[in-house]
Design goal:
alpha/beta; 11 helices; 436 residues; single chain; eight-stranded mixed beta sheet; globular
Length: 436
């Protein structure tokens, strides 16, 4: 074999060995990874920000509602005429649909989307609890307690739990939130409170307030307008006053557990005629002529499952209602109201049943000065099916702190109320049948 042939054969053998080595190396690498995996897989996911969170980003400050309540929208009334409806968020114990990591506009697959139930409704509704208190004044005793200990310096821990645990809380707001205006001349008592304290209403769990009383215009129209703005900023509904007749008469509606609950606030105690919204705006909704009130009750009951009329009426410190209170109550119940609960007298007045519906003529004071001998909070439970039930929670105040009464103190309050009432008031605060 000549030299040239030997060289060619030697080169071919080297190439063959190199090829075999290459095959063995590639085979070993292929055994080290799952079949079908691309070596570049995952690189896009690693480079995509927020991939683990669905790529969604929340801008800083999205939860911020803006300036402090006392400065927001001062003097403006942003509510539209007609019923003001708020959808109550479910309590923490209520069933709620879990949040999905998949954007609604991008279902995981067509098959998965097709399997979604058609016409699915929200979580099943449960019982709704409504609490209604008497007069609330944020003045010297309140401010001293709140400045010292926050809301714990105003109501006891147990009572606060009941207030915040209710689905709806209604109070009579017996003062304006404002730093402006001048006190009304020749008026014995004039009240107002700095807007910065409005946060205490939210801490108490208040959902809706009545402004239809004889003190919300104590510092004039500017102060009342400020009050509207402050309450709007806190997200608290108000009734019985407004920048127009329509707004002052407006039915306040809150939706909870699949039902609509309406609240009408009105006053039968107004210092001068120019406080009436028909005479001058902003002003108050009054019922010296109850015609319009009864029309609103009839209209409201057509759309509401449960309707409350909350009048400011009666004679201060009088234990028994005036004849006009009884007549207005009878007409309101006949027009469709499910409950009438009053304020203004600064003391308890009796309870009676009209066509099976309770009328609490006055609930007395709730947060008002350092000492309250006796008062009650009305607790209404509206079930999904069946009739509402009613209970009176006895309360008192000492040292400016309002608390639930217990033991003999509770017995004394409920026993006193039973003695002046036409309806039987049980030892547990339940409202029984009308006495013979």
């Amino acid at each position: 074999m000549n030299k040239t042939v030997r060289i060619v054969l030697y080169v071919l053998s080297l190439l063959t060995v190199a090829g075999l080595l290459t095959v063995f190396v590639l085979a070993a690498k292929q055994q080290g990874k799952p079949a079908g995996q691309d070596a570049a897989a995952g690189s896009e996911a690693d480079e995509t920000p927020g991939a683990q969170n669905g790529g969604a980003e929340i801008a800083d400050g999205a939860e911020n509602d803006g300036p402090d309540a006392e400065d927001a929208g001062r003097g403006e009334d942003t509510a539209e005429p007609g019923a003001d409806t708020v959808q109550k968020e479910p309590e923490s114990g209520d069933a709620a649909a879990p949040e999905s990591d998949t954007p609604e506009s991008e279902p995981e697959s067509e098959d998965a989307a097709a399997q979604e139930p058609q016409g699915a409704e929200e979580a099943p509704a449960g019982d709704t609890t409504i609490l209604i208190t008497g007069d609330v004044l944020f003045a010297n005793a309140f401010q001293a307690g709140y400045d010292a200990a926050g809301i714990a310096g105003v109501v006891s821990e147990e009572l606060l739990g009941r207030l915040t645990g209710a689905d709806i809380l209604l109070i009579n707001n017996e003062f304006p939130f404002s730093d402006r205006g001048q006190p009304v001349p020749d008026k014995q008592f004039t009240f107002r409170c700095a807007p910065s304290y409005a946060k205490a209403l939210a801490e108490l769990g208040v959902d809706v307030v009545s402004l239809a009383n004889n003190h919300t215009l104590d510092y004039g129209k500017e102060a009342l307008s400020d009050t509207f703005a402050v309450l709007d900023a806190e997200g608290i509904l108000y009734g019985g006053a407004g920048e127009s007749v329509e707004r002052a008469e407006q039915l306040q509606v809150i939706e909870a557990n699949g039902k609509k609950f309406g609240f009408l606030a009105v006053s039968r105690v107004i210092p001068t005629a120019d406080w009436k919204v028909e005479q001058s705006t902003p002003g108050l909704f009054s019922c010296y002529d109850e015609t319009r009130l009864l029309e609103l009750v009839e209209e409201g009951k057509k759309t509401c499952d449960f309707l409350v009329v909350y009048p400011h009426w009666g004679v201060e410190h009088a234990a028994y209602p005036e004849d006009y209170q009884k007549k207005i109550a009878e007409k309101c119940i006949a027009a469709g109201a499910d409950l009438v609960a009053g304020s203004h007298t600064h003391c308890l007045q009796g309870v009676e049943l009209i066509d099976g519906k309770p009328v609490c003529y006055s609930l007395g004071n709730f947060i008002f000065g350092r000492t309250i001998d006796r008062s009650v909070v009305v607790e209404i439970t509206v079930p999904t099916e069946g009739e509402p039930s009613y209970r009176l929670l006895p309360v008192y105040a000492s040292g400016g702190v309002t608390s639930l009464a217990e033991g003999s103190a509770a017995e004394d309050i409920l026993g006193y109320l039973n003695g002046i009432s036409g309806a039987e008031i049980g030892a547990d605060g339940s409202i029984g049948t009308e006495k013979n």
